[in-house]
Amino acid sequence: MTPTPEPRSGMTTRSLCTFLALTFGLTWGIALLMALFPDQIEAMFGELSSTNPLFIVAVYAPALAGVLMVWRNYGINGLGGYLKRLTQWRMPIGWWVFLVAGIPLLFYAGAAPTGTLTDPFPYSPWYGVLPALALHLFLGPIEELGWRGVALPLLQRRLAPLWAGMILGAIWGLWHVPAFLLGGTPQSDWSFGPYFISVVAISVIVTPMFNAAHGSILIAALFHFQLNGPAWPDAQPWDTLVFVAAAAVIVVVNRKSMLSREAAATEILLFENKAALPHRVAQPQ
Q: Which residue in 86, 89, 166, 168 is deepest, having the highest Cβ count within 10 Å?
């Protein structure tokens, strides 16, 4: 379903600054509290882990900022139109093949040089992976309500998809900095430089897929879920090179759409008919 052009009551490219201020302020603010008062935070909320309520709020910050801004600018009806983007599943079959099979193949390609390709399946019995899958489905992918739900459409109103994807990737990577500084997170054992490059490459990869799906938040969330898949082999440090190479190939193959804003998804809201649109209208920017 192609989005109906929306009215914009303040949700312009300038709104990106507000979105980033809310997102970074919440995540980095929580990280600062955890760094300054580790004992008190642990006593109140438990050790730093994926079940720590403050950690979850920090991870959900982009989504919380996105939902708040949509509600503030478009009202309840607008929020419904924004969440309808979670129902968009149509996109070209080639992208579906890449989403379902291509991303795992990238991890296996990165794992081959490391010798982890033949490592045994880390869950025994096999169904032990199901809780991990559920956790990864409702943790990282929720971020996409903000990153691809709000930030990317706003960036693509001014920039071609390639540049919008790269800039958002850089912002996305920097947002993760606290995870590298706090003990107890997976990133605390990683090197930030290769991770940052990987995130920029990943952001470039998902951008044409997102546009091909007409701005689907669902597709972006599924892409994020695939990246965090707990069953894929450990591909570090080769995963950086693999994702950069994949991004380069995707840009070359999709160079026409990546360098033009003509087919870029720029709408925040999705409505089936104009009668459902909010009444507040402002000039688009």
A: 168
